[in-house]
């Protein structure tokens, strides 16, 4: 994924900062989802908005399904399966977790803050 920006995430407890890390923010369209409730593993297929290449992004199955349902609807179907198509073609900003291994989170483009949009358009805006 070529188009990205840097964002800083800060986790704190009270007045004490416990963790600061930089996340790269990507933009793309969700093309598919696959996963297994038994293993707990899943993946999102995301098409990069600039290069149009598709990346398979590993994720935690159940929390990703719930997040997709919450953001777009029509994901969870009868028998608690993720056979709905409400997420397909939806454009998102997304990032890996702090270790850079699995999906850290996503935001539908239509719900993105002005700051996130600015950071995507100008990656230096999020530089530390």
**Helix coverage percent:** 10-25%
Along the chain, the helix and strand elements come as EEEEHEEH
Largest sheet: 6 strands, antiparallel
Q: What's the CATH topology label? A: OB fold (Dihydrolipoamide Acetyltransferase, E2P)
What is the mean pLDDT? 80
Please characterize this protein's 3D structure.
The protein is of the alpha+beta class and 128 residues long. The chain has one domain: Beta Barrel (OB fold (Dihydrolipoamide Acetyltransferase, E2P)), CATH 2.40.50. 16% of the residues lie in helices and 45% in strands. It is built from two helices and six strands. It has helices at 61-72, 114-121; strands at residues 4-13, 16-35, 41-48, 54-60, 91-96, 103-108. Strands 1, 2, 3, 4, 5 and 6 form a six-stranded antiparallel sheet that branches. Strand 5 (91-96) and strand 6 (103-108) form a beta hairpin. It is globular, with a radius of gyration of 15 Å.
